[in-house]
Predict the 3D structure of the following.
Amino acid sequence: MKTSDAVSFFKTKTNLAKKLGITHSSVCQWGEEVPELRAFQIERLTNSELTVHPTKAIESAPSHKIDVSSRC
């Protein structure tokens, strides 16, 4: 989700921050993309009018590999 799209939807960074329960300066620190967890929050707040980019969520998901060879 693009930060500019989220700001446009809520009209201002201040309004967006208030809806998320965070500070204006936090929103100002975002880059071009909304941080993933905030994007999911915004998707819920907008009743899916704004959506998380599914490919972005998959690409940024950490790969958790556990080495079980040394376990009993």
Notes: The helical segments are 3-10, 13-20, 24-28, 36-45, 54-60. The first helix runs from residue 3 to 10. The chain has a mean pLDDT of 84. Residues 42 and 48 are 8 Å apart (CA to CA).
